[in-house]
Amino acid sequence: MRSLVCIEHDNWDGTLLKIREMGGKAGNDWVNDKISTKFFFPGICWERSFIPIDIWNAGDPNSNLIESVHRDVNREGVHCTLLGGLKKGQLFDSMKMKTLVISETYGINPSYKTGHVSENAYHNLKRKSNSQHRVLADEDQKIERYNDKLLKSLENLVKAEDARSAKESELLHETQPERRNKLEGELQKKFRGEERARKTFEKLRLDRESLKGGSGKVAKLDHP
């Protein structure tokens, strides 16, 4: 795709065909969309436009600013007669010249954005940084949820162990046969409850390894 941004292209149609073939549906949709606009390709390739070469070379052809200017020029005079299109083109040139004169004379730019490569690079870095912060924040939330589940699971395991231990102690001091039989049945339930709590806790301990590091502000709880 980058090769399409040029003054002249050796194999324009072949390149579009290659984009369709290698890009699949996305590549095919991209080409169809750019063809349907009728102004995109003339805005990035000089030989497909009617812009004089001197005007085309007036700035960095890879910048978004100059590309947008090329596109603006090509849009002037749409659905107009030949004379109407010519007058619109002259008005466009006049407005651009007035903008340049005001900028040089008074230092008033047409936009708060300079269009400089450094500005674009800054915004790209800022956008990338914000994206990374969101990813790290999501990972921190996952760690916090994991820590809460681990602590609750440990609490349930300790309660189950205490309940089983208390039932064992009660059975140890019981002398009546009927009461002992009942306590033995209750003790088996306590054992099963303790086993379920232990399995849940062990599973959470294994899940710890799948968590990413996050921002470092929230630490993963170590195995108790």
TrEMBL record:
Among its keywords, does the record have Coiled coil? Answer: yes
Keywords in alphabetical order: Coiled coil
**Coiled-coil region:** 136-163
Q: Where is this region: Disordered?
A: 163-194
* Listed name of the protein: Uncharacterized protein
Source organism per UniProt:
Mycena alexandri
